[in-house]
Design a protein that fits this description.
Blueprint lengths: L7 H67 L3 H28 L3 H30 L1 H78 L3 H12 L17 H27 L14
Amino acid sequence: MSSANMKVGTRLGIGFGVVLLLLLAILIVAIVNMASMNNETQLIVKDRYVKVDLSNNVIENTLDNGRLMRNLALIDDKTKDAKSIEEISKNRSSNKEDLDKLDKILTLPKGREIFKKVTDASTALQPKYDHFLELIKVDKKTAIDYLLNEFVPTNNLLLSSIKELNAFQSELMNESAKQSEDAYGNSKLIMVSLGIIALLMGVGIAYWIVVNLMKQLGGEPDYAAHAVGKIAEGDLTIDLAIKPGDTTSLLYSLKTMQDSLRKIVAEIKNIVEDAAIRGNFSTKMDLNGK
């Protein structure tokens, strides 16, 4: 079916249908990309940030214990020593809890590989805590030597491994943020592009509908309605404006009908005048095509 033969309802349906389909595509793109951004955000907040936070706690507690061990070696105060030992114990317990939590939520192979370094260092470090705390009670000089030569290297190994794990999780968190940013950028680009296409197609389809309607009518709708009304009232004097080359429009058909009616009226008038004025009743109307 050609566009010229389409009903107005069909044209409007096609026009609005295309625009609505593009708007639906924009909606789908928005929902899909929002879901992607939400997934990455949830991954950051509920997974990767949690791991970074736990590893930061272990780093903080390990550094704090190093400071407390140094204080035990340098300060000779029973009250302060007891307090330091108590804090060291709390930090060790906290580290154990955090490492247990990390053990349950680390799933990536690289993360597990780094975590093994952490657990190996932590396992090696725990008896050194106990040995140092025993030495500090009986022989501070030996305890200091043990602290520097045995405890500190193992403690530093734990720190370096947990910092490596922290860096890895931070990198993953940054990757998720980048993916969320990319999803936003892609979504924005696609939605703007589809929006422009929908706008252009809407304008194009509207223009196509208007042009075809104007071609069928032969002029503005109100002008065509006015012309039909005049002719329906019997006014055949109206001068219909027909566009050059127009042979198919409503106005052209009205013009053709108007001309035919004018000829019929003229013939009738001529017959009446011949009969009434000249007494000639022999004049007849040609009924061919009427």
